[in-house]
């Protein structure tokens, strides 16, 4: 069986994404994934929302356009890079796109 790491994983539906502008799947085949955006956006943002500090799940702040950790206040930009302590390592980012009715994420 060939390794299919370049194949995308469907992590949810377009309807779910469009409802709130974000889609969290904590148990996808590639681990926790948080996708931000809607089907109208040219580019979707996708990250592993596990905070690199102590592992809480970060939340997307739409107005500030950043991810904020509820546990100790670390902040990350849309590119996953740390903007505020105490985190020191970035969030893992993914490529995300819409295929039919599905939101598909690639490692
Ligand atoms: Fe996120 Fe500590 S676990 S800031």
Q: Give the number of DSSP strands.
A: 10
SS-derived structural category: mainly beta
Output mean pLDDT. Answer: 93
Straight-line N-to-C gap: 19 Å
Weakly predicted, low-confidence segments: 1-5
Could you tell me which ligands this complex binds, including any ions or cofactors?
FE2/S2 (inorganic) cluster
Contiguous helical run count? 1
Looking across the biggest beta sheet, what order are the strands in?
1-10-9-4-3-2
How do the helices and strands follow one another from N- to C-terminus? Answer: EHEEEEEEEEE
Helix content: under 10%
Percentage of residues in strands: 35-45%
Radius of gyration based on Cα positions: 14 Å
Could you give a short account of the major beta sheet? 6 strands, antiparallel
Structure description:
This protein is 7% helix and 41% strand. The chain has 107 residues and is mainly β. The strands form 2 sheets. The protein has a 6-stranded antiparallel β-sheet, covered by helices on one side. Bound molecules: FE2/S2 (inorganic) cluster (FES). FE2/S2 (inorganic) cluster (FES) binds next to loops.
Please write out the topology:
Elements: E1 9-13, H1 14-20, E2 22-28, E3 31-36, E4 45-47, E5 59-61, E6 66-68, E7 75-76, E8 82-84, E9 93-99, E10 102-106
Antiparallel strand pairs: 1-10, 2-3, 3-4, 4-9, 5-6, 6-7, 7-8, 9-10
The chain binds FE2/S2 (inorganic) cluster (FES).
């Amino acid at each position: 069986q060939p390794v299919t790491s370049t194949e995308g994983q469907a992590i949810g539906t377009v309807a779910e994404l469009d409802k709130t502008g974000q889609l969290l799947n904590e148990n996808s085949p590639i681990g926790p994934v948080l996708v931000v955006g809607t089907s109208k956006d040219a580019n979707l943002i996708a990250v592993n929302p596990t905070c690199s500090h102590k592992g809480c799940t970060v939340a997307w702040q739409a107005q500030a356009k950043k991810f904020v950790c509820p546990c100790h206040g670390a902040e990350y930009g849309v590119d996953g890079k740390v903007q505020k302590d105490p985190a020191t390592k970035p969030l893992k980012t993914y490529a995300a796109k819409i295929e039919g009715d599905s939101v598909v994420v690639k490692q």
